[in-house]
Structure formats: C-alpha cells, structure tokens
C-alpha cells in the first residue's frame, strides 16, 4: 500500500502546478481577447499611454543626440595654443614633442600655417581677405588634449615664451554641461509625472473592467477563490496595455526619427559634419517595452488590490 500511495503527493503537486500554469495562460489569452473585443477603448487607452511614454523618451533621445553633436569630451577639452608669428617651424615641432612628453597632456596636434590657410580657403568666403595679405599671416597652432584639468594646463601653456594666445572652451563646456544636466533632470521629472499619468490611465481602465465583472468576482469570492486567482486576469490585462503602449511609443519615435533624419543630415553637411540622429538600440527598445509592461502591471495590481480589499467577504 505504501508503495502504491507514495507517488500520490508528487502527482498532486504536478497537477496543482499544471492548473496554476493553465490559469496563467488562460488569463493572458482572455486579457488579449478582451482588448480585441473593445478596439475603440483599447486604442484610446493605449494611445494615451503611448503619448505619455513617448514624450520623456523623445526628450531623452534628443538630449543624447545633442551630447553627440557637441563632440566627444576630449575634443571639447582641447586647448588651442597659437604661437608667436616669429616662431620657426622647427621650433614649433620641437615644442610639440616636448609637450607630448608631459604627464598632464594626452596628445598634441601641430598645425602649420599652410594647413591653417588651406582650411580657411576650404571654408570659403575669405578669399578676398586672404588675397590682400602678403604671404601667410597665420601662426603655428598646437592643439593640446589634457589628461586632467584643462584650466590649470591652459595657465601653464600661457607661460611658455613661444605662446602668443591660449584658448580653451572650459567656460563654454561647463555651461553646456549644466544645460545638459538640467535637461536630463527635467526629462526624469517629466517621465515620473507622465509615468504616473499612464499608471492612472491603466488603473482607470482596469477599474471599469472590474465594475463590469463585479458579479463574476462576487461568485468567485463566495466559492473561496483566492485574491491572487481573481487578480491574475486583470494583471495580465494591465501588462498587455503597457506592452502595446510601449511598442506604439517606439513606433511614434521611429516615425519622428525618419521624418527628421534627412533635413538634419543636410543641415549637418552644410557645417561639414557627418552627424546623424541615433535612435534606440535593441536593448534600449526592449527595456522601454518591458518597463511599460511593468507600469501597466503595477497600475492594474493597485486598482485590483484596492477593490478586493473593499469587497472581501467577512465572517459574521
């Protein structure tokens, strides 16, 4: 008898696990079915959520592209050292080699007056001015990339006997970094506010669905169904709304990217840049859709939990 009855607990556990899995699958399919049966309400809910998600995501993408457009950090930190006009080419090259050996300098680029003149002529509009000059009026230029604080390095380079003018964009870069930090913080605040709005939209939609199934929920409670059993279909409904809204938000941003890519590329080309908009990669897109699904799940869970606490049968 013991040998015959031994497998029964394992069989019960397997049956219980199978029932649990079947109910999850049924809840997911039923949630998708309810969305399909109400296309107008579904489109309205998903559309509002998608717009709420697309706005902070679009702002974040814009800030990311602005950071790329301003150039990499090393280029923004470059210090330009214009040597005196009487410094010979050999001395300029020797000075560049000496600077490269310093520990606080990462790289040094030496541009001759001929290279500078050719660059000015390529930009155009200065031919008349250059034609009136005897010879080449441009000095040797050293573009120095620092390893540490460029302000301290600029002061040291200004003390060189051969240096005439030292320029660096530290103030401009600090102001730009400040604006970018403000934009990033603003994007986070906007995402929090609109994310809360999306959560409320899902919660209200699920609440209406709960009200329409009040009698069914009451019967399940009288039959002894657990809160988790009753809550599960609504959780999948909220998650489905979120997943579809996240995908729609990405589609909206992709359309905006396609619409802006060509004119922005033409504008960048006119400035001699190969800049192009950069959208979301696969990992980021998956994170957006997953996050939207979690947001919908939370909204549905909060509303359903509140309703079940209000309607839970009490012992008398």
Quick take:
With 316 residues, this protein is an alpha+beta fold. Helices cover 74% and strands 8% of the residues. A 4-stranded antiparallel sheet has the order 2-3-1-4.
Provide an overview of this structure.
With 316 residues, this protein is α+β, with helices and mostly antiparallel strands. The chain has 2 domains: 28-71 and 175-311, no CATH class; 78-168, 2-Layer Sandwich (Alpha-Beta Plaits), CATH 3.30.70. It contains 12 helices and 4 strands. The chain has helices spanning 2-5, 7-37, 39-69, 73-76, 89-100, 113-123, 127-131, 150-158, 170-212, 214-222, 227-270, 282-311; strands at residues 79-83, 105-111, 141-146, 163-168. Helix 3 runs antiparallel to helix 9 (170-212) and helix 3 crosses helix 11. It starts with a helix and ends in a 5-residue tail after the last helix.
């Amino acid at each position: 008898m013991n040998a015959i009855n031994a497998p029964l607990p394992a069989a019960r556990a397997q049956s219980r696990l199978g029932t649990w899995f079947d109910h999850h699958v049924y809840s997911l399919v039923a949630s998708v079915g309810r969305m399909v049966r109400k296309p107008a309400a579904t489109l309205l809910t998903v559309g509002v959520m998608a717009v709420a998600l697309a706005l902070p995501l679009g702002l974040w993408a814009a800030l990311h592209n602005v950071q790329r457009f301003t150039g990499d950090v090393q280029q923004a930190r470059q210090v330009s050292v214009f040597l005196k006009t009487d410094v010979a080419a050999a001395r300029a090259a020797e000075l560049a080699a000496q600077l490269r050996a310093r520990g606080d300098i990462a790289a040094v680029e030496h541009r001759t007056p001929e290279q500078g003149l050719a660059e000015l002529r390529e930009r155009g509009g200065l031919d008349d001015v250059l034609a009136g000059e005897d010879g080449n009026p441009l000095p040797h230029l050293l573009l120095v990339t620092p390893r540490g604080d460029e302000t301290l390095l600029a002061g040291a380079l200004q003390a060189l006997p051969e240096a005439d003018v030292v320029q660096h964009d530290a103030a401009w870069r600090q102001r730009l970094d400040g604006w970018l930090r403000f934009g990033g913080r603003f994007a986070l605040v906007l995402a929090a506010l609109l994310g809360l709005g999306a959560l409320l939209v899902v919660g209200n939609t699920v609440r209406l669905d709960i009200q329409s199934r009040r009698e069914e929920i009451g019967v399940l409670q009288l039959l002894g169904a657990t809160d988790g059993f009753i809550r599960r279909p609504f959780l999948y409904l909220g998650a489905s709304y979120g997943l579809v809204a996240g995908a729609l938000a990405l589609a909206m941003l992709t359309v905006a990217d396609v619409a802006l890519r060509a004119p922005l590329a033409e504008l960048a080309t006119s400035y001699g840049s190969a800049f192009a908009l950069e959208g979301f990669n696969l990992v980021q897109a998956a994170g957006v859709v997953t996050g939207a699904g979690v947001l919908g799940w939370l909204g549905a869970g909060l509303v359903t939990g509140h309703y079940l606490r209000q309607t839970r049968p009490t012992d008398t």
